[in-house]
Amino acid sequence: MTLSSTRLIVGPFNRVEGDLEVTLDVQDGRVAEARVNAPLYRGFEQILLGRPPSDALVIAPRICGICSVSQSVASARALAGLGPAAMPENGTLATNLILACENAADHLTHFMLFFAPDLARSCYGGRPWFAAARRRFAAGDGECARALLPARARFLHLMGLLAGKWPHSLALQPGGVTKAVDPGEKIRLLSILAEFREALETHLFADSLEAIAALDGLPALDAWADAAPPEAGDFRLFLHIARDLDFTGLGAGPGRFISSGSFGLFAPGVWAQGASTPFDPAQVSEDHAHSWMEGAILAPAVGKTIPAPDKPEGYSWCKAPRLDGQVAEVGALARQVVDGHPLARALNAARPGGSVHDRVVARLLELARLIPAMESWIRAIRPAEPFCAPPSPLGEGAAVGLVEAARGTLGHWLGLHNGRIAQYQIVAPTTWNFSPRDAQGNPGALEIALAGAPVLPGETTPVAVQHVVRSFDPCMVCTVH
Amino acid sequence: MVAPSPPPDTYNVLWLQAASCGGCTMAALAADDTGLLRSMARFGIRLLWHPSLSEESGAEALAVLEDCATGKLRLDCLCVEGSVLLGPNGSGRFQMLSGSGAPMKDWIARLAPKARHVVAVGSCAAFGGMPAAGHNPTDARGLQYSGWDPGGALGKAFRAGSGLPVVNIAGCAPHPGWMIETLAALALGDVSAEHLDALGRPRAYADHLAHHGCGRNEFYEFKASAARPSDRGCLMENLGCRATQAPGDCNIRRWNGYGSCTDGGYACINCTSPAFETPSGPFQETAKVAGIPVGLPVDMPKAWFVALAALSKSATPQRVRTNAHADHVIVPPARKPLKSP
Known about the structure:
The structure holds two protein chains of two kinds.
Chain A: E1 6-10, E2 21-27, E3 30-37, H1 44-48, H2 56-59, H3 68-82, H4 89-115, H5 130-137, H6 143-155, H7 157-163, E4 172-173, E5 176-177, H8 183-204, H9 209-213, H10 218-226, H11 234-244, E6 256-259, E7 269-272, E8 275-277, E9 284-287, E10 297-298, E11 320-323, E12 329-330, H12 332-339, H13 342-350, H14 356-380, E13 397-405, E14 408-417, E15 420-427, H15 429-433, H16 445-450, H17 463-471, H18 476-480
Parallel strand pairs in A: 6-12
Antiparallel strand pairs in A: 1-2, 2-3, 4-5, 6-7, 7-8, 9-10, 9-11, 13-14, 14-15
Helix pairs in contact in A: 3-4, 4-6, 4-7, 4-14, 6-8, 8-14, 12-13, 14-17
Chain B: E1 11-17, H1 23-28, H2 36-41, E2 45-49, H3 58-69, E3 77-81, E4 84-85, E5 96-97, E6 102-103, H4 104-111, E7 117-121, H5 123-127, E8 140-141, E9 145-146, E10 149-150, E11 167-169, H6 176-187, H7 203-206, H8 217-221, H9 250-253, E12 288-289, E13 292-293, H10 302-314, H11 318-324
Parallel strand pairs in B: 1-2, 1-3, 3-7, 7-11
Antiparallel strand pairs in B: 4-8, 5-6, 9-10, 12-13
């Protein structure tokens, strides 16, 4: 294989929650251009049309098995926009807990099952940390997943108590939740959180969650990484490997970050060039120039989803969302940077576009921040007070429901006419991150982040490309839906 | 690149995600509170490749699939999660298997005849599921059914190497126990045709109804019905619950440690049955004719249901009636008065 000017078509990409194909134009051992294809189309936006509005609560979660709660919440919020119900405090607390449980479980799942196994690949056999990485992170039998998969399963008992089951619950309604919490269940919830905290503090962090959340800059992160042997905690092992593999120099994205805010805990906004501005969903549009979709550039409130499989310029089923015409990145790094966490802001100051390192660090930082917040929400639950407001009649018109899924901002744009769903457009986190080029030819966030990634001689599925792709925590099934 | 040959005593599973949401795998990850891989390893089950759990990506993954298709790797079981998309216009282009240039439907058609067992994981792979809702924009099918109609992507006559039809672990998502126990029973050689119901579902769970063990049983007995979300009463009369018709043991074994749909306060939507995705009315409202629910409990004559419902409503204790319309216990059960000393 010659190293100058080759085209690689990479797939099937696993550990990306769905279907992904990446076409790489490689020049002199580096990715020159990447094209990202989401090769599965299921037509949820078409299926929702004409249905009674409350059916969205059944259909929308089934877009995605890993972020189904996020889809439920977006859908419930869109419905609430057309029939405002004063959600009781308990309803807000329970909704936050269910959503945070999914977000936190996803962050952990992503790290131990989807991202870290690539660090145990035989291509790293010569690195000093390889034996440790193999033991902790190997796909299938790594100790990290062996310890933390059971912890994750028992953490999801929170879903059993509050949401009936996971995935695909109907507990999340526009006015609150269908399941009240009794005094005994409140204690059980605290026990579930305590057990999960212990597992994270033992295996993932080898430190208290509060110590991780208190890391306030790059010197503090470095000092923490060096304060114990590399194998003291999987996060520390990652930091050591990331230094050796220069993960800070890999995968810089567009440098414009969106968060719709979450839980009242993480502030909303848009962060670009060192400054924050408000996030206005009315500035979102979807560009179809390189999607196998009819139409041009439309705001989701009037958007259409009409497949055009033979469109010659198309190379993905994914549309290209843009904020005021600009490419943006969403996810835990975006949320933490927008929120202004000192460590995230320091990472951003050092590398405005982010990196593989920064995305993983922000995700685990957020995990450490979420669990204590969840503990406080459980303590605030007041059994015997209401959990759900009575349903209110839905008006005609349009509304948007926004939520932060683990992997970023999710929006449902809903329109009702004659009591039926007349418009339903979904813009999912990975739609933002893995979008194709737009009419101006501007690449999507991952396409930007892949440019420059090294491709070693003989690699057909370059490992650096895999690190960059998975650093976004993609959810391909949400991407096109 | 050739995957190492598995030891002869393992049961080799290749798991593909067709048009799926990935939720069946996500549910399975919580199996037995230990995780899918360890739960399966106890029965000698080995995953040749799984899209969420394996190391192999790209060319390495395609090599595993190719080796299964050519018979170089013994394929004991092909698990398919998600519907098979035939559209647009029969081309299958709504889902191309990345990196292979071929539609997923063709890969499934190539691999299924090589497998000793073929398992549809979830209602999408079994019957079409949610992607087949409404006018079915992608021409989504189950492996051996399209809704209630035999046929599906593999055809009515398809039989796996063992002679069994496709084993349909229906559910959206299926309970993790259904997946582990079905695969384990297949690996142990314990599954023959009589262990499957008429729609290919394992009778181990499909012989039960979701109603069995429902925590709202006293409210059901007295037809003390919930009127709005978060009420404790029975969900059948008003809120669309189909648990008295739905195959499944979900209220006997519980989900995620403690839960079930009805315990979570919302209706069973009969997700283990074909065409559940397209009900006649809203999911969360009970369809009625002249005040009588259209979907009566299975095996129950309508006249008896009406008579018994009227009788039990007239006998409903005040406690049950009151609590049915609250989200917590307002009136506790009566206690015998304490004996005076």
